[in-house]
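Side project, low priority. Logging it here so it doesn't get lost.
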Amino acid sequence: MKKRKVLLGIIIVVIIYTMAFASKIKRKEGFIGIYPSFNVNLSSNETHGTLYIALGMTVGPFAVPIYMLDRVSSAVYDTVLLPYDYYRLYKTTNGKQVKYYEDENRVEWIGRGKATPLLTDKKEVEYTLKSGNYIGDYIEYYFDGKLKILKKYSDNSILISSYEYYGNQNLKEEIFYFGDGEVKEKKTYSEEGKILLRESYNEKSKFLDKMEYYYNKEKKLEKVAITEKKYLIDKYYDEREKLKSQLKQTISLEKWEGIEETYYKSGKIKGQYIMAEDGVTDIEYSENGEIIKKEICKYKFN
């Protein structure tokens, strides 16, 4: 009697495992958790939909009981694997995670006509998760093992800073963030390590405070935002980083006004181009500060 029960139990297990088509298919597609087999669409574009259509065409009226047996077996199969699914879900959303580069020249054959690339021992990405969110260091590597990207997160999963590197390990870009994740300061470098751009932002408005462009370590352009007065100033420099000209303009879509100034090498003002809503004024000065030329052009509105 006991042998019969054991044999019956084995038969039931084999039937459930064999007939749980929907569950197996959905798990291969990456679904886990509570009853992935319930996420079934009988569309002919999907594997299980095509399977049921094929059954209907071949076994006729037996397709319905096979379908019902599949659904019951899949539900039981999902129930048995539910604790394991939760464990997998916890492992993939908590703790240290490491991903490796794929080996382009080697694959592993799984069944007829199916292959998956084998992995190398070279790390591509590593990071730590807490309830699915990044904490600590997030690191990406080049294939040769050199550092590519480094991001630093707080224990509350707030992004603090990020760094990107060239293949020669010179810094390509570094960004620092406010507590809410908005950019505080950003610096960009050339592959030779020379600074190309520096940006800083206002903590309250998150609007640009200053942007500096460099070339051969010499500052060429500096953008300064006077957010309280809603002005943006573009300062242009010569090869000696002497102020050559500057443009001050309003930060507004409703107005178009500002003033552009140019300078002598001595630093004294050379010219002014004043832009207003009703026209422009062009003024040229001598190096002694005397007005050489002044032209006013008024706009006419119909």
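Brief comment: The chain has four helices and 16 strands.
Revisit when time allows.
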